[in-house]
Design a protein that fits this description.
The complex is a heterotrimer. Chain A is mostly beta strands. Chain A has a single domain, classed as 2Fe-2S iron-sulphur cluster binding domain, sarcosine oxidase, alpha subunit, N-terminal domain (Ubiquitin-like (UB roll), Roll). Helices cover about 5% and strands about 30% of the residues of chain A. In chain A, the strands form two sheets. A five-stranded mixed sheet of chain A has the order 3-2-8-6-7, with helices on one face. In chain A, strands 4-5 form a two-stranded antiparallel ribbon. Chain B is of the alpha+beta class. Chain B is about 30% helix and about 25% strand. Chain B contains eleven helices and 18 strands. In chain B, the strands form four sheets. In chain B, strands 1, 2, 9, 10, 11, 12, 17 and 18 form an eight-stranded mixed sheet that branches. A four-stranded antiparallel sheet of chain B has the order 14-15-13-16. In chain B, strands 3-8-4 form a three-stranded antiparallel sheet. In chain B, strand 1, helix 1 and strand 2 form a beta-alpha-beta unit. Chain B is globular and about 65 Å long. The mean pLDDT of chain B is about 95. By secondary structure, chain C is of the alpha/beta class. The C terminus of chain C is likely disordered. Helix content of chain C is about 40%, strand content about 25%. In chain C, strand 14 and strand 15 form a beta hairpin. The relative contact order of chain C is 0.14. In chain C, strands 1, 2, 3, 4, 5, 6 and 20 form a seven-stranded mixed sheet that branches. Chain C has three domains: about 190 residues, 3-Layer(bba) Sandwich (FAD/NAD(P)-binding domain); about 140 residues, FAD/NAD(P)-binding domain (3-Layer(bba) Sandwich), CATH 3.50.50.60; about 100 residues, Orthogonal Bundle (Arc Repressor Mutant, subunit A), CATH 1.10.10. Chain C is globular, with a radius of gyration of 22 Å. The chains are: A mainly beta, B alpha+beta, C alpha/beta. Chains in contact: A-B, A-C, B-C. At the A-C interface, strand 1, helix 1 and strand 5 of A face strand 8, helix 5 and strand 9 of C. Strand 16 of chain B pairs antiparallel with strand 23 of chain C.
């Protein structure tokens, strides 16, 4: 438990390996993915397509769609998923600058 | 309240005409409906489209071509006036086909129209491989496409917004939340609204979409318009996946893929159905298989405003001269002519276009 | 497609209680819930919480286990991780589970979709590190994850509850920045008599407050001009209090100024909603049974109007009894016999609400955000944009949506709808009912095109150009 991180995990649980944007992470198996990423120190889950603003989990209950991440080509809500071994998680690729900036 | 023109209907058709009249110095009042009214202007597919228009009536093809040609200047002028960009792309558009037979049947129709038009009607026929060079994400089930170079697409909501801003800026009055219940013509026109508002104007343009079916007959029009439901889907914002629009799918300027549209004769029911959106999803994936992984964020049903032959109506009332009916189901494509050309027809100047073929007399002759 | 007498959407207190009651009297029930385990947000993961965490969360939370036990009935099919995205045709419910779409048909539908945090648009509220207080609680309940350096901002009992839980867990918040004033408490005094009927609730609140004070967590009330500072994440909260500007550095900001009914599912099937002035939100039109004007559709629990967990539990049972009677499973007499005491308890438990609603009103700054504050998080639309649309004659949120995309993103207006209505109402000098709300259509949650297409029964007409 490091006091430098904004979020602490009360209990130590068995972890599995996943990657987030290529970075290797050990996350507690079966736990809520958004919570596990936060506890691992990930704050920015994605950037908005319109302005590139950083976003992270806001509601933790599947309503706000700010914790979107990409797994296997589909964009999903991290707060509605659980940690499984081998997950390859990416920041969603929309907003890569292909669109009219207005 | 008095004006030269009262426009009943504050959608893209009504506002395009209003802006055009204001630019010619006319005093204009627009009477617009409720937030929840049926509004094709908010639900349409955003194509600025030429191909397949007027296959049986070359004048309609010409009218569409004329508008498509005016569109970029129209959008630029709107943007200059209001500071509101109207994203537009006119790099051509596709009619995608899943069989060679249907592709070549359509090509024959286009050639036939091309011969009658006597104007340019530029299109290319792309087989699967040629199409794949243009659209790397096209699926194996697509056998080919007609690429028509006069086609394109715009952001219809930004158009609606810019037109509203332009009308306000030019001194036009837009009264929202109004339902016109009664029109009399003692001298000029007097319109009474459900909430008691009264508006007077020298001339009147009925551009109320499906509302024209109710109000039209009171003004001496047949106004034979009916609703046809189109369900439309839009995905989350995605990286570039589709280069040119088609009737099946287009990538909008904000990044989402818009997928259209059903053609359903279900009266004034604009709801979304699982069967409707599933069929659209299946077809879009057949065209662009990568879409299978995309999230559908919204879907909606909107009601097309259709005449019996699908063509527009431009008609002056015979019982109430000075009242005009304007209705079409291609308000986006025709926005440019409605703003830049139609005011001359309404003002009856020497520059007025000949719109006789679009008179509603055509529905009595048959 | 599976078939049930009753489809219940949401496995929180209302949904679980409704399912248990319906099954006990012989009805077949499909209970659809988005979470992998029952409980709703209030009892999230109550069945797998371990002991130290359970102690921190308290007895009220542990009570939820009674309700989850009630789901062990052969008549109940609990579909876990099911995201409902369409309800149609009296009734086919379409949902996604494990990346696959499926449907269930039912004669009656009970919506028990709970509450959402009231949108709280403040400068900086979209930064990573800013979350709802409810999110903070979910992190604790489900994952045992705690914000180590947090400031709580807003008003209402939930703010005290989570603060007290954080104190018990050994990570007290840096501060409570509260927006209600002593004046609000004075105004609430006239509702005190009613509140005494629910005195247990008040006593609990005072105990929470005592724990917070004992832990020396700084409290600032009547805070105004709140801003969350930070470039790529929340770094501090600034505000004014008693004529002074304060700045508190932090990593996490938890926002809360009340919860509002989650009306998305009900609106998608055109259940009418009316503005509730006391609770400052739209609530669906329901009768004492939770029945709506849409035949066969009931709404129970917070999604019918905020009452809290125990009220929701009663409401779930009450709606189930009416549905059972309509289905012929019980007689009208049995229905009334069973419902009488439930209705009485529900009224008693609701009696504290007027006091709470007045003592902890929504944060004024967030109800009328500054022009530069984002209201639509998804499409990044600012309050000033909405005001601009009003100047162009925009009367309602649907026109505003067409003009500026507020409500068009994946959350479908859940976190901007009330703000947009409030701003337009203010600009146009109209009431919220006359201004209206966003039209909500299926899919009420995003669904992949692949899942949708897999449900397509091919007919030649569909394939025609």
């Amino acid at each position: 438990m490091s006091n430098d991180l904004p979020f602490l995990e009360m209990e130590k649980k068995p972890t599995v390996q996943v990657t987030f944007d290529g970075q290797r992470l050990d996350l507690p198996e079966g736990e809520n993915l958004a919570a596990a990423l936060l506890a691992a120190g990930i704050q920015t889950f994605r950037h908005t397509a319109k302005t590139g603003a950083p976003r992270g989990p806001f509601c933790m209950m599947g309503a706000c769609f700010d914790c979107l991440i990409e797994i296997d080509g589909t964009v999903r809500q991290a707060c509605m998923l659980e940690v499984q071994p081998g997950l390859q998680i990416a920041r969603p690729s929309a907003g890569g600058g292909d669109h009219d900036p207005e | 309240m008095q004006a030269d023109y009262a426009i009943i209907g504050g959608g893209v058709v009504g506002l395009s005409i209003a802006w055009g009249l204001l630019k010619k110095g006319r005093k204009v009042i627009v009477l617009d409906g409720e937030d929840g009214s049926f509004r094709a202007s908010r639900g349409n597919f955003g194509l600025v489209w030429v191909q397949s228009k007027g296959l049986n009536q070359p004048a309609y093809a010409r009218w569409s071509q004329r508008s498509a040609a005016l569109w970029s200047d129209f959008a630029a002028e709107l943007a200059d006036t209001t500071g509101q960009a109207v994203p537009l792309e006119q790099k051509g558009g596709y009619d995608l086909h899943f069989s060679d037979e249907s592709l070549y049947q359509t090509v024959e129709k286009y050639k036939n129209l091309q011969a009658q038009l006597g104007t340019e009607y530029p299109f290319d026929v792309l087989g699967h491989n040629a199409l794949r060079k243009e659209e790397p994400n096209i699926g194996p089930k697509v056998s080919g496409a007609i690429l028509h170079h006069q086609d394109g697409h715009a952001n219809p909501l930004r158009l609606l917004m810019a037109l509203s801003a332009a009308v306000h800026q030019q001194g036009g009055k837009v009264l929202t939340g109004k339902t016109v219940t009664e029109v009399t013509k003692p001298d000029g026109f007097v319109m009474r609204c459900a909430d008691g508002t009264t508006v007077e104007a020298g001339k009147l343009v009925l551009a109320a979409g499906l509302g024209a079916a109710v109000l039209g007959p009171k003004l001496g029009f047949k106004a034979p318009v009916r609703p046809q439901r189109g369900q439309v889907l839009i995905t989350e914002k995605l990286p570039k996946l589709i280069n040119r629009p088609s009737l099946i799918a287009r990538q909008v300027d904000e990044g989402g893929i818009q997928i259209g549209a059903t053609n359903e004769e279900v009266g004034h029911d604009d709801s979304v159905t699982q069967s409707g959106i599933s069929s659209l999803a299946a077809k879009a994936i057949a065209a662009y298989p990568a879409l299978a992984k995309a999230q559908l964020v919204r879907s909606w049903g909107a009601l097309r405003v259709l005449t019996p032959d699908g063509l527009p109506i431009y008609q002056e009332s015979q019982t109430m001269p000075g009242a005009y009916l304007v209705t079409c189901h291609s308000g986006i494509t025709l926005a440019a002519v409605h703003a830049q050309v139609l005011p001359d027809w309404l003002d009856q100047t020497a520059a007025a276009p000949d719109l006789e073929v679009f008179s509603e007399q055509r529905f009595t002759i048959s | 497609m599976t078939q049930s007498d009753i489809a219940i959407i949401g496995a929180g207190p209302a949904g679980m209680a409704a399912a248990a009651t319906a099954a006990r009297h012989g009805a077949t029930v499909t209970l659809l819930d988005e979470q992998p385990r029952p409980g709703g947000q209030i009892y999230r993961d109550v069945d797998r919480v371990n002991q130290p965490r359970a102690d921190i969360l308290g007895k009220d939370y542990q009570c939820g286990a009674t309700l989850t036990r009630g789901l062990r009935d052969a008549g109940i099919t609990h579909v876990k991780g099911a995201v409902v995205w369409a309800i149609e045709d009296s009734f086919t419910v379409s949902y996604t589970q494990n990346g696959q779409a499926a449907q269930v048909s039912a004669d009656r539908v009970i919506l028990a979709t709970g509450a959402l945090e009231r949108p709280m648009p403040l400068p900086g509220w979209t930064l990573p590190g800013v979350m709802t207080a409810g999110a903070g609680q979910i992190l604790l309940k489900q994952s045992g994850v705690l914000a180590s350096n947090a400031v709580l901002v807003g008003s209402g009992p939930l703010l005290y509850l989570i603060a007290a839980q954080m104190v018990r867990a050994g990570t007290p918040p840096r501060a409570l920045v509260e927006t209600q004033s002593r004046y609000d408490l004075l105004r609430a005094g006239k509702h005190f008599g009613g509140a005494l009927r629910g005195a247990g609730y008040l006593v609990k609140g005072l105990k929470l407050l005592a724990q917070i004070i004992r832990a020396r967590v700084p409290r600032y009330t009547a805070a105004t001009d709140i801003t969350i500072e930070g470039d790529t994440r929340a770094e501090a909260v600034t505000f004014r209090n008693r004529g002074r500007t304060h700045r508190i550095a932090c990593d996490t900001v938890l926002l809360h100024h009340g919860v509002v009914p989650n009306t998305q599912a009900a609106r998608s099937i055109e259940v009418p909603h009316l503005w509730d002035n006391a609770q400052h939100c739209f609530s669906p039109v329901t009768d004492q049974w939770g029945a709506t004007p849409v035949e066969g559709v009931f709404i129970a629990g917070d999604s019918a109007g905020i009452g809290g967990a125990t009220v929701a539990e009663r409401a779930g049972r009450i709606s189930a009894l009416k549905a059972l009677e309509e289905l012929g499973q019980i007689s009208p007499q049995a229905r009334d016999d069973l419902a009488t005491s439930l209705l009485r308890q529900k009224a008693k438990e609701n009696a504290v609400r007027p006091f709470l609603d007045t003592a902890y009103p929504p944060c004024a700054q967030a109800l009328s955000p500054a022009d530069s504050t984002l209201v639509c998080r998804c499409e990044e639309v600012r309050a000033g944009d909405i005001r601009q649309y009003a100047k162009l004659g925009c009367l309602g949120p649907n026109q505003a949506k067409a003009f500026g995309r507020a409500g068009m993103g994946p959350c479908q207006g859940r976190y901007c709808g009330l703000s947009v209505t409030a701003i337009l109402a203010q600009e146009n000098s109209l009431g919220p009912d006359d201004t209206g709300y966003l039209r909500i259509r299926p899919p009420i949650k995003p669904v992949t095109l692949g899942e949708l297409a897999a449900m397509h029964q091919s007919t030649p007409a569909d394939a025609a150009e």
